[in-house]
């Protein structure tokens, strides 16, 4: 009886500690994570006209994408179709999706030189939304993030650039292809795009 009681008390204590760990996450924690990431990227990107080795590009790709939850973003991009496909297909889809997004993240490195101003940070438990303005020369672009706190770290689950959601943008493309030609046609297109990455 004492053993069972101890297990019960431990379970409650563990739950309370877990909730407290999430509750202790603040706006400053989220901002610090994003600022550190931004500084790392800016240091590697360097001034305009900088050339990069393959190793530097690989490092940049990892820092830019290392805090993105590609599974969550891919699930949002595929919407209801995600729940209708087999586990193996889901895993392949997430892998292809992440390969494509990671590759596109290096298409225009100038955007990472922009000065970032944080206009709003809201934390609600293990969810957060961050709104920023990125200014490059005279152009100001809203860049917003949806984040989730998991396993002791904040992960980006979606990004909005100029009020356009990354997941929603892909969702429109994917659903159009699925409606016209089916899911397998979408997968074949993604395989070809990922192969070129």
UniProtKB/TrEMBL annotation:
<dbReference type="Pfam" id="PF05494">
    <property type="entry name" value="MlaC"/>
</dbReference>
<feature type="signal peptide">
    <location>
        <begin position="1"/>
        <end position="23"/>
    </location>
</feature>
<dbReference type="InterPro" id="IPR042245">
    <property type="entry name" value="Tgt2/MlaC_sf"/>
</dbReference>
<keyword id="KW-0732">Signal</keyword>
<dbReference type="InterPro" id="IPR008869">
    <property type="entry name" value="MlaC/ttg2D"/>
</dbReference>
<protein>
    <submittedName>
        <fullName>Phospholipid transport system substrate-binding protein</fullName>
    </submittedName>
</protein>
